[in-house]
């Protein structure tokens, strides 16, 4: 059980807020939205290892089932959260999971990007495009954004 400190808001959350429940026809109403969560472990379930009460965690939970991240407390599967890095606050951590996993899946899992390869990211304005620009060095991969064209005359 995680006491929620922050929850991310993504396109999927917006879609459901606009009434897009036809994409989730088997979910009984009412339900609590939100999948990206950051918080503190309050209770550790029987047989769960790797976490203890008071640990800060974050992750994307239960998709496509209701994640309940917009609640004060959320029962989350231990395999769907990880320790929150101390350099991130809960708001920053809650903003990462869906966008980060979307970018990772597209570039690494689907495109097969390997260590040492390069990819050019044009117009990195959405979260899933900005994310890989900010984490390229720790992964050993290189992503580049184009530089603006020079202006003025010579």
Record keyword descriptors for this entry.
single chain, 154 residues, alpha+beta, 5-stranded antiparallel beta sheet, two-stranded parallel sheet, 18% strand, globular
Describe this structure in words.
This protein is an alpha+beta fold and 154 residues long. Helix content is 25%, strand content 18%. The chain is built from 4 helices and 7 strands. It has helices spanning 11-17, 90-94, 97-110, 127-139; strands at residues 2-7, 36-41, 56-60, 73-74, 82-83, 118-120, 142-144. The strands form 2 sheets. A 5-stranded antiparallel beta sheet has the order 4-1-2-3-5. A two-stranded parallel sheet has the order 6-7. Strand 6 (118-120), helix 4 and strand 7 (142-144) form a beta-alpha-beta unit. The protein is globular. The relative contact order is 0.16. Residues 143-147 have low confidence and may be disordered.
Summary of the model, kept short:
By secondary structure, the chain is an alpha+beta fold. It is about 25% helix and about 20% strand.
